[in-house]
Amino acid sequence: MPEFTLDDRLAQDGHYITDLPLCQLRLMKDARFPWLVLIPRRAGITEVSELNEVDQRQLWHEATRAGELLSACLSGDKLNIATLGNVVAQLHLHVILRRHDDAAWPAPVWGHGEAVPYDDAQQAELGATLRNAAESMEWAV
Known about the structure:
Blueprint: H1 8-13, E1 14-19, E2 23-28, E3 35-40, H2 53-73, E4 78-82, E5 93-98, H3 120-135
């Protein structure tokens, strides 16, 4: 069985938070938007339909829980969950907590301005907060 390898772009664009039962959880390096990415740890998968039914259910459960995680740790007005894959083919799912006053509202966040990276202290604090909260949650279906 081929081994899971994280796409270089996903590695570059996000900070590692933790591994969930199916996915690697990463925080996007853009402080303008509370934004998590879930990447199923399955080799060669580019579409949700390529996952077996058990993994599809687990992916949706993890996406739902990741949204709850963001909402519990940060304030927001609307939760967006999406898969695109036009730039990075490896299956990944975006979980974004939107705010009515964010830089892109109400438009999608993609292609809107330049990313604003977290400074080291912000990233460390938010990463630890998300990791600690994630560890207290049930992620298995």
